[in-house]
What does this fold into?
Amino acid sequence: MKGTEKKALDIAWVREQFPSLKLPVNGHPAAFLDGPAGTQVPKHVMDAIRDYLLNANANTYGAFLTSRRTNEMILSARAAMADFFHCDPDEVVFGQNMTTITFALARAIGRELKPGDEIVVTTLDHDANVAPWRALEDEGVVIRQVDICEADCTLDLDDLKRKITGKTKLVAVGYASNLVGTINPVAEIAKLAHAAGALMFIDAVHYAPHGPIDVQALDCDFLVCSPYKFFGPHMGTLYGKREHLQRLKPYKVRPAPDTSPECWETGTQVQELIAGIAAAVDYLAELGRRLFTRLIEGLPAIPGMRIFGITDTKRFEERCSTLSFRLGESNPTELAAFLGERGIFTWDGNFFALNLTERLGVEKHGGVLRVGLVHYNTAEEVERLLSGLREFIGR
Ligand SMILES: Cc1ncc(COP(=O)(O)O)c(C=O)c1O
It folds into this structure.
Protein backbone atom coordinates (compact mmCIF):
# COMPACT_ATOMS: atom_id res chain seq x y z
CA MET A 1 0.00 0.00 0.00
CA LYS A 2 2.73 2.41 1.02
CA GLY A 3 4.72 1.73 -2.15
CA THR A 4 1.72 2.27 -4.39
CA GLU A 5 0.88 5.57 -2.71
CA LYS A 6 4.33 6.86 -3.59
CA LYS A 7 4.01 5.60 -7.14
CA ALA A 8 0.70 7.42 -7.58
CA LEU A 9 2.22 10.79 -6.70
CA ASP A 10 5.60 10.03 -8.24
CA ILE A 11 7.30 13.34 -7.63
CA ALA A 12 10.54 11.77 -8.88
CA TRP A 13 8.94 11.16 -12.27
CA VAL A 14 7.59 14.72 -12.33
CA ARG A 15 11.00 16.23 -11.55
CA GLU A 16 12.66 14.04 -14.14
CA GLN A 17 10.47 15.68 -16.77
CA PHE A 18 12.09 19.04 -15.95
CA PRO A 19 15.84 18.79 -16.78
CA SER A 20 16.51 22.39 -15.76
CA LEU A 21 15.68 21.55 -12.12
CA LYS A 22 19.13 19.96 -11.89
CA LEU A 23 20.90 23.34 -12.15
CA PRO A 24 23.67 23.70 -9.53
CA VAL A 25 24.40 27.11 -7.92
CA ASN A 26 27.66 27.53 -5.96
CA GLY A 27 27.53 23.86 -5.02
CA HIS A 28 23.85 24.01 -3.99
CA PRO A 29 21.01 22.47 -5.97
CA ALA A 30 18.75 25.30 -7.19
CA ALA A 31 15.31 25.45 -5.52
CA PHE A 32 12.97 27.00 -8.07
CA LEU A 33 10.51 28.91 -5.89
CA ASP A 34 10.11 31.51 -8.63
CA GLY A 35 7.10 29.85 -10.30
CA PRO A 36 4.77 32.90 -10.13
CA ALA A 37 7.10 34.72 -12.52
CA GLY A 38 7.33 31.70 -14.81
CA THR A 39 7.70 27.94 -14.47
CA GLN A 40 10.33 25.55 -15.84
CA VAL A 41 9.38 23.46 -18.87
CA PRO A 42 9.25 19.68 -19.23
CA LYS A 43 11.29 17.82 -21.87
CA HIS A 44 8.09 17.22 -23.80
CA VAL A 45 7.74 20.98 -24.41
CA MET A 46 11.41 21.36 -25.39
CA ASP A 47 11.08 18.41 -27.79
CA ALA A 48 7.97 19.88 -29.41
CA ILE A 49 9.74 23.21 -30.04
CA ARG A 50 12.82 21.46 -31.46
CA ASP A 51 10.70 19.14 -33.55
CA TYR A 52 8.80 22.06 -35.05
CA LEU A 53 12.04 23.84 -35.98
CA LEU A 54 13.43 20.65 -37.52
CA ASN A 55 10.41 19.42 -39.44
CA ALA A 56 7.80 22.12 -39.87
CA ASN A 57 9.50 25.52 -39.78
CA ALA A 58 7.70 27.83 -42.25
CA ASN A 59 5.16 30.59 -42.48
CA THR A 60 1.46 29.71 -42.78
CA TYR A 61 -0.76 29.01 -45.81
CA GLY A 62 2.00 28.09 -48.30
CA ALA A 63 1.61 25.32 -50.90
CA PHE A 64 4.40 23.12 -49.55
CA LEU A 65 5.04 20.55 -46.83
CA THR A 66 6.46 22.57 -43.93
CA SER A 67 3.83 25.29 -44.34
CA ARG A 68 1.05 22.73 -44.33
CA ARG A 69 2.58 21.16 -41.22
CA THR A 70 2.63 24.60 -39.58
CA ASN A 71 -1.08 25.09 -40.33
CA GLU A 72 -1.87 21.67 -38.88
CA MET A 73 0.24 22.31 -35.80
CA ILE A 74 -1.54 25.63 -35.12
CA LEU A 75 -4.93 23.93 -35.47
CA SER A 76 -3.99 21.22 -33.00
CA ALA A 77 -2.52 23.76 -30.55
CA ARG A 78 -5.78 25.72 -30.75
CA ALA A 79 -7.70 22.54 -30.02
CA ALA A 80 -5.40 21.79 -27.04
CA MET A 81 -5.93 25.28 -25.58
CA ALA A 82 -9.68 24.96 -26.24
CA ASP A 83 -9.61 21.83 -24.03
CA PHE A 84 -7.69 23.79 -21.43
CA PHE A 85 -10.21 26.66 -21.44
CA HIS A 86 -13.26 24.47 -22.14
CA CYS A 87 -14.28 26.41 -25.24
CA ASP A 88 -14.21 25.91 -29.03
CA PRO A 89 -10.89 26.14 -30.93
CA ASP A 90 -11.99 29.25 -32.88
CA GLU A 91 -12.37 31.07 -29.54
CA VAL A 92 -8.63 30.72 -28.81
CA VAL A 93 -6.18 33.48 -29.80
CA PHE A 94 -2.39 33.22 -29.49
CA GLY A 95 -0.25 36.26 -28.74
CA GLN A 96 3.11 37.45 -27.50
CA ASN A 97 2.07 37.60 -23.83
CA MET A 98 -0.94 38.58 -21.72
CA THR A 99 0.05 42.26 -21.58
CA THR A 100 0.28 42.65 -25.36
CA ILE A 101 -2.96 40.73 -25.93
CA THR A 102 -4.79 42.85 -23.37
CA PHE A 103 -3.58 46.16 -24.85
CA ALA A 104 -4.74 45.00 -28.30
CA LEU A 105 -8.11 43.81 -27.01
CA ALA A 106 -8.64 46.99 -24.96
CA ARG A 107 -7.96 49.13 -28.05
CA ALA A 108 -10.48 47.10 -30.05
CA ILE A 109 -13.10 47.28 -27.28
CA GLY A 110 -12.40 51.02 -27.01
CA ARG A 111 -13.71 51.46 -30.56
CA GLU A 112 -17.17 50.55 -29.27
CA LEU A 113 -17.05 52.89 -26.25
CA LYS A 114 -18.00 56.53 -25.91
CA PRO A 115 -16.93 59.23 -23.43
CA GLY A 116 -18.54 58.64 -20.04
CA ASP A 117 -18.67 54.85 -20.43
CA GLU A 118 -17.11 53.12 -17.44
CA ILE A 119 -14.67 50.25 -16.89
CA VAL A 120 -14.13 48.63 -13.50
CA VAL A 121 -10.60 47.52 -12.52
CA THR A 122 -9.22 46.49 -9.11
CA THR A 123 -6.44 47.38 -6.71
CA LEU A 124 -5.64 43.66 -6.29
CA ASP A 125 -4.70 43.26 -9.96
CA HIS A 126 -1.42 43.11 -11.86
CA ASP A 127 -0.97 46.34 -13.81
CA ALA A 128 -1.37 44.39 -17.07
CA ASN A 129 -5.06 44.21 -16.18
CA VAL A 130 -5.24 47.90 -15.31
CA ALA A 131 -2.99 49.95 -17.65
CA PRO A 132 -4.59 48.69 -20.92
CA TRP A 133 -8.01 49.78 -19.64
CA ARG A 134 -6.67 53.05 -18.19
CA ALA A 135 -5.27 53.81 -21.66
CA LEU A 136 -8.89 54.26 -22.76
CA GLU A 137 -9.17 57.29 -20.45
CA ASP A 138 -7.66 59.19 -23.41
CA GLU A 139 -10.98 58.52 -25.22
CA GLY A 140 -13.04 59.79 -22.26
CA VAL A 141 -13.71 56.38 -20.71
CA VAL A 142 -14.03 56.56 -16.91
CA ILE A 143 -12.07 53.99 -14.90
CA ARG A 144 -13.42 52.95 -11.51
CA GLN A 145 -10.98 51.10 -9.29
CA VAL A 146 -12.31 48.65 -6.69
CA ASP A 147 -10.54 48.70 -3.33
CA ILE A 148 -9.42 45.75 -1.21
CA CYS A 149 -10.10 44.71 2.39
CA GLU A 150 -6.65 45.43 3.74
CA ALA A 151 -6.75 42.98 6.65
CA ASP A 152 -6.74 39.91 4.42
CA CYS A 153 -6.07 41.36 0.95
CA THR A 154 -9.37 40.19 -0.50
CA LEU A 155 -11.43 42.22 -2.92
CA ASP A 156 -13.91 44.58 -1.26
CA LEU A 157 -17.02 43.10 -2.86
CA ASP A 158 -19.28 45.83 -1.46
CA ASP A 159 -17.08 48.41 -3.15
CA LEU A 160 -17.18 46.33 -6.33
CA LYS A 161 -21.00 46.28 -6.24
CA ARG A 162 -21.02 50.05 -5.76
CA LYS A 163 -18.62 50.63 -8.63
CA ILE A 164 -20.57 48.54 -11.15
CA THR A 165 -23.25 50.90 -12.45
CA GLY A 166 -25.56 51.25 -15.43
CA LYS A 167 -22.66 52.94 -17.25
CA THR A 168 -20.23 50.02 -16.74
CA LYS A 169 -19.21 48.44 -20.03
CA LEU A 170 -16.52 46.05 -18.81
CA VAL A 171 -15.33 44.58 -15.51
CA ALA A 172 -11.66 43.52 -15.50
CA VAL A 173 -10.73 41.26 -12.58
CA GLY A 174 -7.91 38.84 -11.86
CA TYR A 175 -8.73 35.22 -11.11
CA ALA A 176 -5.97 35.10 -8.47
CA SER A 177 -3.55 37.70 -7.11
CA ASN A 178 0.08 37.24 -8.18
CA LEU A 179 1.20 38.98 -4.99
CA VAL A 180 -0.90 37.67 -2.11
CA GLY A 181 -2.49 34.61 -3.74
CA THR A 182 -6.15 35.57 -3.10
CA ILE A 183 -8.57 33.79 -5.42
CA ASN A 184 -11.42 36.08 -6.44
CA PRO A 185 -15.04 34.89 -6.82
CA VAL A 186 -14.90 35.55 -10.56
CA ALA A 187 -18.05 33.57 -11.47
CA GLU A 188 -20.04 35.66 -9.00
CA ILE A 189 -18.44 38.86 -10.32
CA ALA A 190 -19.28 37.81 -13.91
CA LYS A 191 -22.95 37.58 -12.86
CA LEU A 192 -22.81 41.10 -11.40
CA ALA A 193 -21.12 42.42 -14.55
CA HIS A 194 -23.66 40.80 -16.85
CA ALA A 195 -26.60 41.96 -14.73
CA ALA A 196 -25.35 45.51 -15.38
CA GLY A 197 -24.95 44.78 -19.11
CA ALA A 198 -21.15 44.82 -18.92
CA LEU A 199 -18.55 42.44 -20.33
CA MET A 200 -16.43 40.32 -17.99
CA PHE A 201 -12.67 40.09 -18.58
CA ILE A 202 -10.64 37.71 -16.38
CA ASP A 203 -6.87 37.77 -16.00
CA ALA A 204 -6.15 34.11 -15.21
CA VAL A 205 -2.37 34.40 -15.63
CA HIS A 206 -1.64 33.72 -12.00
CA TYR A 207 -4.44 31.24 -11.43
CA ALA A 208 -3.75 28.97 -14.43
CA PRO A 209 -1.07 26.74 -12.81
CA HIS A 210 -3.16 26.36 -9.65
CA GLY A 211 -6.51 25.05 -10.79
CA PRO A 212 -8.73 24.06 -13.68
CA ILE A 213 -10.28 26.81 -15.80
CA ASP A 214 -13.75 26.50 -17.30
CA VAL A 215 -14.77 29.61 -19.23
CA GLN A 216 -18.27 28.24 -19.77
CA ALA A 217 -18.88 27.64 -16.08
CA LEU A 218 -17.44 31.09 -15.32
CA ASP A 219 -19.52 32.59 -18.12
CA CYS A 220 -16.86 35.19 -18.82
CA ASP A 221 -16.54 37.07 -22.10
CA PHE A 222 -12.73 37.04 -22.17
CA LEU A 223 -10.07 35.24 -20.19
CA VAL A 224 -6.31 35.51 -20.64
CA CYS A 225 -3.45 33.39 -19.40
CA SER A 226 0.19 32.86 -20.26
CA PRO A 227 1.53 29.34 -20.92
CA TYR A 228 4.94 30.16 -19.46
CA LYS A 229 3.25 30.14 -16.05
CA PHE A 230 1.99 26.59 -16.55
CA PHE A 231 5.05 24.77 -17.87
CA GLY A 232 4.82 26.11 -21.42
CA PRO A 233 6.79 28.62 -23.48
CA HIS A 234 6.84 32.42 -23.16
CA MET A 235 3.56 33.35 -24.84
CA GLY A 236 0.06 34.53 -24.01
CA THR A 237 -3.34 33.11 -24.92
CA LEU A 238 -6.80 34.62 -24.99
CA TYR A 239 -10.20 33.02 -24.77
CA GLY A 240 -12.86 35.24 -26.31
CA LYS A 241 -16.54 34.41 -26.73
CA ARG A 242 -17.01 33.80 -30.45
CA GLU A 243 -19.64 36.55 -30.88
CA HIS A 244 -17.24 39.16 -29.44
CA LEU A 245 -14.19 38.00 -31.41
CA GLN A 246 -16.24 38.17 -34.59
CA ARG A 247 -17.92 41.51 -33.84
CA LEU A 248 -15.01 43.53 -32.49
CA LYS A 249 -12.54 45.04 -34.95
CA PRO A 250 -8.90 44.45 -34.02
CA TYR A 251 -6.19 46.77 -35.39
CA LYS A 252 -4.56 44.80 -38.19
CA VAL A 253 -2.85 45.05 -41.58
CA ARG A 254 -5.22 44.90 -44.55
CA PRO A 255 -3.97 41.70 -46.26
CA ALA A 256 -4.15 39.66 -43.01
CA PRO A 257 -7.25 37.46 -42.54
CA ASP A 258 -10.44 39.28 -41.54
CA THR A 259 -11.87 36.23 -39.86
CA SER A 260 -11.40 35.42 -36.20
CA PRO A 261 -9.39 34.12 -34.45
CA GLU A 262 -6.62 34.75 -37.06
CA CYS A 263 -7.47 38.46 -37.41
CA TRP A 264 -6.43 38.92 -33.76
CA GLU A 265 -3.00 37.36 -34.29
CA THR A 266 -0.99 40.28 -35.63
CA GLY A 267 1.99 39.51 -37.88
CA THR A 268 3.89 36.24 -37.90
CA GLN A 269 3.39 34.27 -34.71
CA VAL A 270 6.17 32.55 -32.77
CA GLN A 271 5.14 29.26 -34.30
CA GLU A 272 7.75 27.10 -32.58
CA LEU A 273 6.40 28.29 -29.24
CA ILE A 274 2.82 27.58 -30.25
CA ALA A 275 4.02 24.00 -30.81
CA GLY A 276 5.35 24.15 -27.24
CA ILE A 277 1.96 25.30 -25.89
CA ALA A 278 0.24 22.20 -27.23
CA ALA A 279 2.96 20.11 -25.57
CA ALA A 280 2.45 21.90 -22.22
CA VAL A 281 -1.28 21.09 -22.31
CA ASP A 282 -0.34 17.49 -23.21
CA TYR A 283 1.95 17.39 -20.20
CA LEU A 284 -0.94 18.39 -17.92
CA ALA A 285 -3.07 15.68 -19.53
CA GLU A 286 -0.23 13.20 -18.97
CA LEU A 287 -0.32 13.99 -15.24
CA GLY A 288 -4.01 13.04 -15.32
CA ARG A 289 -3.22 9.84 -17.22
CA ARG A 290 -0.73 8.81 -14.56
CA LEU A 291 -3.45 9.05 -11.91
CA PHE A 292 -5.69 6.94 -14.09
CA THR A 293 -2.89 4.41 -14.55
CA ARG A 294 -2.67 4.04 -10.78
CA LEU A 295 -6.41 3.40 -10.63
CA ILE A 296 -6.43 0.86 -13.41
CA GLU A 297 -3.39 -0.94 -12.02
CA GLY A 298 -4.86 -1.01 -8.51
CA LEU A 299 -8.33 -2.32 -9.41
CA PRO A 300 -7.50 -5.86 -10.66
CA ALA A 301 -6.00 -6.74 -7.25
CA ILE A 302 -9.49 -6.44 -5.75
CA PRO A 303 -11.22 -9.85 -5.70
CA GLY A 304 -14.20 -10.15 -8.06
CA MET A 305 -13.25 -7.05 -10.08
CA ARG A 306 -14.59 -6.92 -13.64
CA ILE A 307 -13.52 -3.80 -15.54
CA PHE A 308 -15.30 -2.88 -18.76
CA GLY A 309 -13.30 -1.31 -21.58
CA ILE A 310 -9.62 -0.80 -22.41
CA THR A 311 -7.27 -1.60 -19.53
CA ASP A 312 -3.97 -1.91 -21.40
CA THR A 313 -1.97 1.16 -20.35
CA LYS A 314 -0.22 1.17 -23.75
CA ARG A 315 -3.60 1.87 -25.36
CA PHE A 316 -4.56 4.86 -23.19
CA GLU A 317 -4.60 7.16 -26.19
CA GLU A 318 -7.75 5.26 -27.17
CA ARG A 319 -9.69 5.98 -23.98
CA CYS A 320 -10.41 8.69 -21.46
CA SER A 321 -10.36 8.47 -17.68
CA THR A 322 -13.99 7.35 -17.23
CA LEU A 323 -14.09 3.81 -15.95
CA SER A 324 -16.90 1.34 -15.20
CA PHE A 325 -16.71 -1.92 -13.33
CA ARG A 326 -18.63 -4.51 -11.31
CA LEU A 327 -17.49 -6.17 -8.13
CA GLY A 328 -18.51 -9.86 -8.05
CA GLU A 329 -22.28 -10.27 -7.77
CA SER A 330 -22.64 -7.13 -5.67
CA ASN A 331 -25.20 -4.52 -6.57
CA PRO A 332 -23.61 -1.31 -7.90
CA THR A 333 -26.16 0.84 -6.05
CA GLU A 334 -25.22 -0.83 -2.78
CA LEU A 335 -21.53 -0.34 -3.55
CA ALA A 336 -22.06 3.34 -4.46
CA ALA A 337 -23.92 3.87 -1.18
CA PHE A 338 -21.12 2.16 0.78
CA LEU A 339 -18.48 4.38 -0.86
CA GLY A 340 -20.73 7.44 -0.55
CA GLU A 341 -20.86 6.95 3.23
CA ARG A 342 -17.07 7.20 3.19
CA GLY A 343 -17.18 10.44 1.22
CA ILE A 344 -16.32 8.82 -2.12
CA PHE A 345 -18.85 9.89 -4.74
CA THR A 346 -19.41 7.53 -7.66
CA TRP A 347 -22.33 6.74 -9.96
CA ASP A 348 -24.16 3.48 -10.46
CA GLY A 349 -26.58 2.34 -13.15
CA ASN A 350 -26.58 2.72 -16.94
CA PHE A 351 -26.22 6.52 -17.40
CA PHE A 352 -28.69 6.18 -20.31
CA ALA A 353 -26.18 4.07 -22.27
CA LEU A 354 -28.90 1.43 -22.19
CA ASN A 355 -27.90 -0.40 -25.37
CA LEU A 356 -24.43 -0.89 -23.95
CA THR A 357 -25.47 -2.16 -20.49
CA GLU A 358 -27.94 -4.55 -22.18
CA ARG A 359 -25.27 -5.74 -24.60
CA LEU A 360 -22.81 -6.27 -21.73
CA GLY A 361 -25.47 -8.27 -19.86
CA VAL A 362 -25.37 -6.07 -16.77
CA GLU A 363 -28.59 -4.10 -17.15
CA LYS A 364 -30.66 -6.68 -15.24
CA HIS A 365 -28.13 -6.63 -12.41
CA GLY A 366 -28.03 -2.93 -11.66
CA GLY A 367 -25.60 -1.85 -14.41
CA VAL A 368 -22.10 -0.81 -13.38
CA LEU A 369 -20.27 1.44 -10.93
CA ARG A 370 -18.73 4.40 -12.75
CA VAL A 371 -15.68 6.37 -11.61
CA GLY A 372 -14.50 9.50 -13.44
CA LEU A 373 -11.17 11.22 -12.90
CA VAL A 374 -10.58 14.84 -13.88
CA HIS A 375 -7.62 17.11 -13.26
CA TYR A 376 -8.66 18.19 -9.78
CA ASN A 377 -8.64 14.62 -8.50
CA THR A 378 -5.67 13.44 -6.47
CA ALA A 379 -3.60 10.32 -5.93
CA GLU A 380 -4.87 10.23 -2.36
CA GLU A 381 -8.49 10.05 -3.62
CA VAL A 382 -7.60 7.12 -5.87
CA GLU A 383 -6.06 5.32 -2.87
CA ARG A 384 -9.18 5.99 -0.80
CA LEU A 385 -11.34 4.48 -3.52
CA LEU A 386 -9.14 1.37 -3.70
CA SER A 387 -9.18 0.85 0.05
CA GLY A 388 -12.95 1.52 0.13
CA LEU A 389 -13.46 -1.26 -2.41
CA ARG A 390 -11.25 -3.64 -0.41
CA GLU A 391 -13.25 -2.83 2.71
CA PHE A 392 -16.52 -3.54 0.84
CA ILE A 393 -15.25 -6.97 -0.24
CA GLY A 394 -14.04 -7.82 3.27
CA ARG A 395 -17.38 -7.01 4.99
C1 LIG B 1 -1.58 38.18 -12.60
C2 LIG B 1 -0.74 38.54 -13.79
N1 LIG B 1 -1.33 39.15 -14.82
C3 LIG B 1 -0.63 39.51 -15.91
C4 LIG B 1 0.72 39.26 -16.02
C5 LIG B 1 1.44 39.68 -17.25
O1 LIG B 1 1.58 38.56 -18.06
P1 LIG B 1 2.52 38.55 -19.34
O2 LIG B 1 3.91 38.45 -18.87
O3 LIG B 1 2.09 37.32 -20.11
O4 LIG B 1 2.27 39.78 -20.10
C6 LIG B 1 1.38 38.63 -14.96
C7 LIG B 1 2.82 38.37 -15.02
O5 LIG B 1 3.47 38.07 -14.06
C8 LIG B 1 0.63 38.24 -13.82
O6 LIG B 1 1.19 37.61 -12.77
Q: What stands out?
A: The chain is about 40% helix and 15% strand. Residues 331 and 365 are 7 Å apart (CA to CA). The chain has a mean pLDDT of 92.
